Amino acid sequence: MNESPRVAGNIIRRMEMRFVNPILKSPYALILPALAICVCFSVIPALMAFRNSFFSVDYVAGVDRFAGMANYRSIFTDGAFIQVFRNTVVFTFFSAAFGIPLAVLTAVFLNSNSPLCNFTQGVVFTPHVISFVSVSTLWTFMMDPQFGILNYALGLLGIRPLMWLLGENTSLPSIIIVSVWKTLGYNVLIVVSALQTIPREVYESAMLDRSGPVRTFFHITLPMISPFFVFLITTCVAQTLNTFDLVRLMTGGGPKNSSNLMVYWIYETGYLHFQVGKAMAGAVIFLFFVGAVSLLNFALTSRRAYYQ
Asked: What mean pLDDT is reported for the chain?
């Protein structure tokens, strides 16, 4: 009688080893939790947005009716949407065009294990961990047209003050400056990590060949860290395309939509103006645009990446 529980336990363990363990060792079982989260919070909302883009949705009254392509026609004839789309392209391009080269140059100067360089790396990385609320508040005071320190510095140089966040021509460049400053620390950390993977023997060989610093940088350093650029450009473009906090906290999209970006426009149209169908149509267009940009980025950068 005492052997019965032991025999039953052995049978259960054999069944587990025969049926359960192969399932747990399957790669599909390992990715199932991440796949479920992706489906619930990405795929299903995207399908709902695509569906609602063809409907006139009224959440207040609790009704919706089929509108066909009316939402898309409304978007493409809306001058505000065209301006916001153009702002998003300009913001993304200049944020990456200034942010990535600046990060590379900063990382090259900080690529050392000395205490001073390590301390400077920590200081440079600090803005990345600061909340957008703190960053927006800080830069809003600094860009104040009357009492801001930036206009004070321009006055010392003999340059007339700028309106910064309050000017139609300066609001978008202002949030580009803040975006580059905010993401600089993260980009520098990635580039410094890439630089430290380059073997010292490569630089020693370049020194023996009497290669100058500029030639060494362009012919050795950049090709050797090119795989990291694929990741860096991808994350930088994705982050800038989805910028919401800076616009919401610093400019509200103004003045006259001069600093408005796509993500904030979708929020504004859907949740503030209650034009849900139009907002979803804009979200679908933006989804295809982001997908096209991502494919173009991989096509252009992956071919130029040097993998050891």
From this structure: 83
CA angle at 285 for the pair 284 and 291, rounded to the nearest 5°: 90
Q: CB-side exposure of 187: number of CA atoms within 13 Å?
A: 28
Return the beta strands (E) in 119-171 as ranges: none
- Residue among 261, 228, 307 at smallest CA distance from 81: 261
Residue 116 confidence (pLDDT) above 90: no
The span from the CA of 72 to the CA of 70, in Å, is 5
Is the preceding omega at residue 255 within 30 degrees of 0, hence cis? yes
- Of 288, 248, 268, 241, which is closest to residue 72 (Cα–Cα)? 288
Angle, CA 44 vertex, CA 41 and CA 46 arms, to 5°: 95
Q: What is the dihedral of CA 143, 145, 150, 154, to 10 degrees?
A: 150
**CA-to-CA separations, 141 to 30, 150, 226, 250, in angstroms, rounded:** 49, 9, 38, 10
Q: What is the pLDDT of residues 28-50, one digit of tens each?
A: 777 888 888 988 988 888 888 88
> Tell me, what DSSP letter sits at residue 64?
E
Domains of the chain: 3-38 (no CATH), 71-304 (1.10.3720.10)
- Return the residue matching tokens 């990060």: 103
